[in-house]
Design brief:
Strand content: under 5%
Number of strands: 0
Distance between the termini: 60 Å
Radius of gyration: 21 Å
Order of helices and strands: HHHHHHHHHHHHHHH
Shape: globular
Largest sheet: none
Number of helices: 15
Structural class: mainly alpha
Length: about 375
């Protein structure tokens, strides 16, 4: 009898996330409490960290002989495809509620953050789809990104981050001693610039300018303009502030995940002056089951960088990869609190490099704090 994935049907739990606005609506109606409009942040920052601790970790890998067949099972693809119709059904319902639901400003703000949580984790769904070679999956990735106005991620992540990961040149790799609040604007602006320049360079190689429909950054952004335009036409201009809030909160979730995935890790230069090849030791991993089901195994990040087109259900654990103390849901909360983050993570970075600061991706402004030589 062949190997059977013990988590096969648990991957459907990933669809719990796009159900957030419907759960919020139902609970608010049933109880009369506006608290439930804030269900998205409560689930992300309250429920899932607890589940990470209660359920624990699973470091088991599929056998090498099973990986090819595992990746061919279309069931796993539908687990990600189904995220999108639920994501957009929730967004449309949210727009109706903002316009006609009789909600207070506080309730509308809570709903915006709940929808932003869906859109932010939708970026992770786009991440899974955007790495694949099938054209329809890459198109679906752009659709998933439209809600958060982060279409350039499709280009920058695949062609920029994966090439420069764990180097000072990568805007999406956080440096030792850099707080999330300093990293956030650097990564947002740096990734936007990188995505534009990468696509501009691609078109220039074919003798074309950037201002054309075939520019993948522009056509991804056009999806957002079309989406927001249709929603504003259908529900009125009063929903615009909440559309913008949910988008910013959504892409901030992506960026805080970027922050923790490679914090302080550095690829060393070889004798030729080039950076060494990306290896498992250049990504922080976590085997916490709850967060991995929420994020389609994103926490097995080392294997993802080694095999970007490998599907989530086949990603493997590596013993040599540095391990986070908990899942991403918990680590996101720590990242928002810099003193606590440094207390937990800085010693782990230094231990990973046997106390040698010269081997870390050290933030320039933090050199004095860590006693590094100039």
């Amino acid at each position: 009898m062949g190997w059977v994935d013990p988590k096969k049907y648990l991957w459907l739990l990933g669809l719990f996330v796009p159900s957030f606005p419907f759960l919020a609506w139902g609970l608010a109606e049933a109880t009369g409490s506006g608290f439930f409009w804030w269900s998205g942040p409560v689930f992300l920052f309250g429920l899932f960290p607890v589940l990470d601790q209660l359920i624990g970790k699973d470091a088991a890998n599929p056998p090498d002989s099973a990986i090819a067949a595992l990746e061919e099972q279309r069931y796993y693809r539908w687990c990600t495809y189904l995220y999108l119709p639920l994501q957009y059904a929730g967004l449309i319902a949210g727009c109706w509620l903002w316009a006609h639901g009789g909600l207070s400003v506080a309730d509308k703000l809570g709903l915006a953050l709940t929808l932003g949580a869906v859109g932010g984790i939708g970026i992770n769904t786009a991440h899974e789809l955007g790495h694949k070679t099938e054209a329809h999956e890459r198109r679906l990735a752009k659709v998933a990104l439209a809600q958060t106005a982060y279409g350039h991620f499709f280009i920058e992540h695949n062609r920029g981050h994966h090439r420069r990961v764990a180097t000072p040149e990568d805007p999406a790799s956080a440096r030792l001693g850099e707080t999330f609040w300093h990293f956030f604007p650097r990564s947002v602006w740096g990734s936007l610039r990188s995505g534009w320049h990468l696509e501009k360079a691609r078109l220039a190689r074919t003798g074309k300018g950037p201002w054309r429909a075939s520019n993948e950054v522009l056509n991804a952004w056009a999806l957002t303009f079309a989406l927001f335009g249709a929603l504003l036409a259908g529900f009125g201009p009063e929903i615009l502030p909440y559309l913008l809030i949910q988008a910013v909160f959504g892409f901030s979730l992506l960026e805080v995940v970027n922050y923790l995935e490679h914090y302080g890790l550095l690829r060393q230069r070889t004798a030729s002056g080039r950076y060494e090849r990306c290896a498992p030791r250049h990504s922080w991993n976590s085997n916490n089951v709850a967060s991995n089901l929420l994020l389609y195994h994103l926490q097995r990040h080392s294997d993802h960088h080694a095999n970007p087109t490998r599907r989530y259900q086949a990603l493997r654990h590596f013993d040599e990869a540095p391990e986070l103390p908990s899942g991403y849901a918990t680590m996101i909360v720590l990242a928002y609190l810099p003193p606590l983050w440094r207390h937990v993570m800085d010693e782990r970075v230094l231990a990973h490099y046997d106390g040698d600061l010269t081997r870390t991706n050290l933030h320039p402004s933090a050199r004095a704090r860590y006693g590094a030589a100039g």
